[in-house]
Amino acid sequence: MTRSTISTAALTVALFFACGASSLQAAPPSGSKWEPIPELTDEFEGNALDAAKWFDHNPNWKGRQPGYFSKSNVTVSDGKLHLTARAEDLPGLPEGYHTFTTAAVKGKALVKYGYFEIKCRPMKSKASSAFWFYHSTKEEWTEIDVFEIAGVGEKWKNAYHMNVHVFHTPTENKHWSKAGKWTAPYDLADEYHVYGLEWDEKVIRWYVDDQVVREIENTHWHQPLHMNFDSETMPEWFGLPDKEDLPSTFSIEYVRSWKKTLPRQ
């Protein structure tokens, strides 16, 4: 499935971003009317993260051990958001955190359904580059992973990992997930690409450069979620980063978000 045409509504949305924005690479899927979600849209201009929209850390999590989310690894420059992983020991880290620091950015707004797109280049390191959504409450905890990428190694450098998780709901208490993988015909960390998620009450679709690379029925993901970008150490999955690959940076040129105003025709 491809999106070869852009609707009049999508062009209207494009104009919304034209002032001061980098050139638009893509738009929401055609066949529906969309309007922007400003609180989850950013061109990352200037030299600081917009504190009205984003946390420069995860307020509820210090990182996946041993990698610690360090605020100093989150920077904005050259029209991009940068999340960096480093081989370093910081003084006074909590028990279990050592050897590596990574980075996290979390959206302050909750969102349910929409089309969400970033243009980015993952880092060349087994410290992950990730774009995902989640929210945890006593009643419900679900997650949608747009991607988790390790940018080096023959096994990982072109592997695009996607997932959805249910940790608990009012009727389910056991964690389960539905993972998917798309193999890119290029090394993911070599250049910038456009990655999108279409999420509505019926379906979840993943896009890479306007191509649908996965689609599933939306059976459980109806909870408002927070948008996240981060880098984590994944010792049991990717393996710990090689220190010679660090520092390495996951760079995001933009994030653009829309909500649907009319259903797909």
Short description:
With 265 residues, this protein is mostly beta strands. The chain has one helix at residues 8-18, and strands at residues 33-36, 54-55, 68-69, 74-77, 80-87, 100-111, 114-121, 129-136, 141-149, 159-168, 176-183, 193-199, 203-208, 211-217, 225-231, 248-262.
What does it look like?
By secondary structure, this protein is mainly beta. The chain has a single domain (39-259), classed as Jelly Rolls (Sandwich), CATH 2.60.120.200. 4% of the residues lie in helices and 44% in strands. The protein has one helix at residues 8-18, and strands at 33-36, 54-55, 68-69, 74-77, 80-87, 100-111, 114-121, 129-136, 141-149, 159-168, 176-183, 193-199, 203-208, 211-217, 225-231, 248-262. It has a 16-stranded mixed beta sheet that branches. β13 (203-208) and β14 form a beta hairpin.
Which ranges are low-confidence, i.e. pLDDT below 50, for 5 or more consecutive residues? 1-25
Termini separation: 16 Å
**How many DSSP H or I helices?**
1
The radius of gyration is 18 Å
Known CATH architecture: Sandwich
Based on CA inertia axes, which overall geometry fits?
Answer: globular
Major sheet details: 16 strands, mixed
CATH topology: Jelly Rolls
Percent helix range: under 10%
Number of strand elements: 16
What is the mean predicted local confidence, pLDDT? 91
- Main structural class: mainly beta
Q: Determine the strand fraction and express it as a percent band.
A: 35-45%
Give the H and E element order. Answer: HEEEEEEEEEEEEEEEE
Task: Give the count of structural domains.
Answer: 1
CATH class: Mainly Beta
